[in-house]
Amino acid sequence: MAQARILVVGGGIAGLTAALALARHGFSVSVLERAAQFREVGAGLQLGANAMRVMAALGLAPDVASRGFRPDAAEIRLGDLGHQVFCLRFAQNAALRTAYVQIHRADLLDLLVAAVRDAGVALHPAVRIVKIVENTDSVAGVTEDGQRFEADILIGADGLRSAVQGYVLAPQPPRFTGQVAWRATVAADAVPAGLVAPRGTIWVGPGRHLVTYFLRGGQLINIVAVEERDDWREEGWMLPGDPALLRAAFADWHPRVTTLLSKVSETYLWALYDRAPLPVWTKGRVALIGDACHPMLPFLAQGAAMAIEDGWVLADCLARDTGTAGLARYASLRQGRTARVQGAARRNAGRFHRRGPVGRTLEFGPMALANLFAPWVLRRSMRWLYDHDVTGGSGV
Fold first, then answer.
1. Whole-angstrom distance, CA of residue 86 vs CA of residue 364
2. What is the DSSP code string of 284-330?
3. Global confidence as pTM
4. Is 213 tagged catalytic?
5. Which of 101, 317, 370, 384 could, after both became Cys, cross-link 329 (CB 3.0–4.6 A)?
6. Rounded to whole angstroms, how far apart are CA atoms 319 and 326?
7. Which position among 213, 273, 330, 386 bears the catalytic label?
8. Given pLDDT bands bounded at 50, 70 and 90, which one contains residue 203?
9. H-only helix segments in 125-206
C-alpha cells in the first residue's frame, strides 16, 4: 500500500515532521490544523543532536542551522552567586559538537510547512476534529458540522489537550505541576556585550530557575523563567504577563540576570502541566504522537526533539507495515524512551529548584566537583539522550 492515505490531526512540529517523513516514504498525507494558520506560538526551542539527525535525514539540517544559533556549551549557574556548577562543552562531545541548534519555534515551523508543501502534503487549516469513526477498512476524522476526512491511518498530533487521545483510551487529564513559566525575548543589541554567553545557561535557585540562549543567529535572546506558584492555572501560551512581576521574582539574583530582565518589555505566562506516561498509544488504525501522548516539561529541552523522533519512527514503521502492526511497532519503540525523558525532565524540576543551603550543597556540590576534575563523567551521563539515533546512522 505505497499510496496508503494518512491523516494527521495537528499541524505543529510533531504533526508536520511526521507528515514530511511519511510523504518521503510515498504515502498520501493530509494534515488538519484547527487554527486558521499553520503557525507556532512561543519563542525558542533547543534541538540536540538526536533531533538534528532527523532534520538531516529529512534534508532540513542546513536550513535549521542557518535559521537558528549554534551554542558552544550548556551550563548551570547558581542564580544568586553566579557560580558555574556544570558545563557541557559541545566541542568535547562527539555526539554534540556537530549539531546543537537553538531556533525560534516559528522559524522551524516555517521550514517544515515549506517542506511538506514541496513534498505534496495537503494542508487544511481551520479544521477541528471532534470525533473519530473507524471501520474495518478505513478511519475518519469528523468535524462539528459533520465534514468527514477519511484515510487508512489517522495520527493524533493535536497536543496536550488531544481530542484524538480520547478515542485511543479513556481521557487522561493532565495535572498542574504548581509551576508557571514566563516567556520573553530581548534584542541582543539591547544588552551589554558579553552579558549573555553564547550557550544555553540555566540559572538555578530556591523555587525557581531561569534559562537564556540565543535565537536567529544571535540577534535575539530567549528567556524562559519558571517559578513555583499555586495561584495560577490559566491555560494558554499567549497570556500576557507583567514584566515588573517577572523582575520582582528574580530581584535578588546575580546582576547578569537582573540586568537582562531590566530590558524585558513584554512577557507571557503559561502554567506547566504534566501527565504520567500513557499505557496505550494506539487503537486500531489510530496512533498518538508528541504531546498528545507524552507532554514534556521544559526542563530537559527535549519536547520538540521527542516529537521529531516520533515522526521519523512512525513513518519508518508504517513504511514497513502499513497497518495496525506498524502502529504497534512504533509505540513499542517509543514508549520506553519518551517515558525516560519525561522522568528526567521531572527530576530536573526538583534539582533546579532545590531549597536550603544543605539541599543545594548536596545537589550541586558533587556536580561542581565533577565539572572541575572529571568533566567526562558529566558528558557520559548525557550520552543516552544525545547519542540516540532513530534514523539508523544518517549522521548530521
1. 9
2. TTEEE-GGGT----TTSS-HHHHHHHHHHHHHHHHHH--SHHHHHHH
3. 0.93
4. yes
5. 317
6. 8
7. 213
8. very high
9. 165-168
